[in-house]
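Morning F.,

Quick status update on the modeling queue. The single chain you submitted on Monday has been processed. Sequence for confirmation:
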Amino acid sequence: EYFWPMLIAGVLTMLTLSRLLQLPIDVILLVMMLFGYLAGNRGFAQISLMGRFPLLPAEFVMLFAGTTLLVHSAFSRNLPVRRETFNLVIFAWIGICSLRLVFDIRAHGFLAIRDFATVYYAVFFFIAQHLANKERHQRWFHGCLIAGATGMLVLYPLVEYFPGFFLNTLTLRGNPVIFFKGDLVGTMLIAGSILIYHRLETRNPAFAVVASLAMTAMALTTNNRASLVAVACAIVLLIIGRRWRFAGIQAVAGVVAVVSILFFAYLTNTSWRQTPLHGVYERVVSIVDVAGERRYSGENTYFKGDNNRFRMVWWKAVVDETIAGNPWFGLGFGSDLSSRFVTEYYPEQGDEFDTRSPHNVMLSVFGRAGLAGLLPLLLISIIIARRIISAARTRDPALGTWCAAWIILVSACFGVVLEGPMGAVIFWSTLGLAAAESKNDTIHDVISSDEPESLPNSGPSASV
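C-alpha cells below.
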C-alpha cells in the first residue's frame, strides 16, 4: 500500500511547491496532471494511489480542485458557471446526462459510472476556467501543455525503440509509468503543433515553426488518420477566419518533404512504394474510402479498409438500435452498445469483444443519452468552431488553444478519445483555458454579491 506514504509526501511536496512557486495547490495539481497525461499517456492514467481502490489521477485532482472551486464559489458568492451561452450549454449537457444516469445506475452499477466518465470529465472545463482566471496561471497551463507535447517528441520514439525498459522496468505495481496509446499520440501531437505555433508565432517564430513541423512529422508516423482529418478541419476554419500562415507553412514543408523523398528515391533507384510517402498516401486515400472497398498494400495500412467497414457497421448498428429503443433519451449508461454490432461483424468471437465505445463520441452519447444528450454536444462543437473563426479574425491570443481543443474533439469522432482521461481531461481543461483567456468571452457577465445589480440613471457617474 502506497496510499499513506504518497499522501503525506504529496501534501508536503504541494505545500513546498506552492510556497516556492507562489501558486495555489489546485493549479499545481492540474498542471502536473496535464503534463502526466501527455508525457505518460496510458501508463500515467493507470497510476493509483490506493492498491485496492482505483483512486486515479484525474478523479483525485477533480475531487480536490472541484471541492476548492465549490468552497471558493460559496465564500465569494459567485457561481462557477458563467452566465454565457458556452458555459450554460456545457452545464446543461452534464445535467441532462446526470438525470439519465440516475435511472441507469441501479440497473448497470459500476458500468454505468464507467460510461458516464465521458460526461463527468467535463467538470474539468469549469475547474480550468476558474483556475486560469489570472494571466500568470494561464502561462503555467500553456507551458505545461507545450512541455508535454514537446516531451512526446522524445518519449514516444524511446518507447517504440526500447519497449522492454518502459514495459518491464519503469513500472509501478507492475504497470508501466509511461505507455502510449497509439491513436492518441497522433492527436495530441497535432494539437500541440497548432497550439505551439499560434502561441509563439510572434514571440519566437523560428522555434514555433520548427517545433510545429516536428510535431506534425512525428504525428504522420503514428499511423493515425483521425488527426489528419482534424487538422484539415482546423485549417479550413482558420482560412475562413483569414489566417493562412499555418496552412501555408505546413503546405510548403509538405511539398519540400515530398520532393526530397522522391529525389532521394530516384538517386537510390528505390520505388516510391517503399518510401514513407506510400504509407501516407494510402492513409489519406483510405479516409475517403468510406465503404472500405479499396485494397491497401502497405505494412501499416493493409487493414485500413477493414477499419472503415468496422466503424460503418458499428455506427449503423448503434443508430438503428437507439432509434428502435429510445431515440430521445438513449439506451442508458452501462448498456451494451456493441451487442448488435458483434452479432453482425464478429458472430464467432462475441465473447472476446470487450470494447464499449463505437469509436465516435457523438454516437456514444446518442446511444447512451439519446437526442437529449447529443444536441447539447453538437451545440458545443458549433460554438467551438465559431470561436475559432472569431479568434482568427480578431487576433485573439486564445486562437491556438481553441484550435487544439477542436482537433481533439474532431479526432474523438473517429476513435476512443473522450471516453478516457488521456484525451478527455486534456480536452476539457484546454477548453476551459481557452474560455478563460479568450477576449471574446463575456467574463463580466458573472454577478457578484458585493456589486450592485443596478446603478442609478442620474448624475455624472451614470453618464460616464
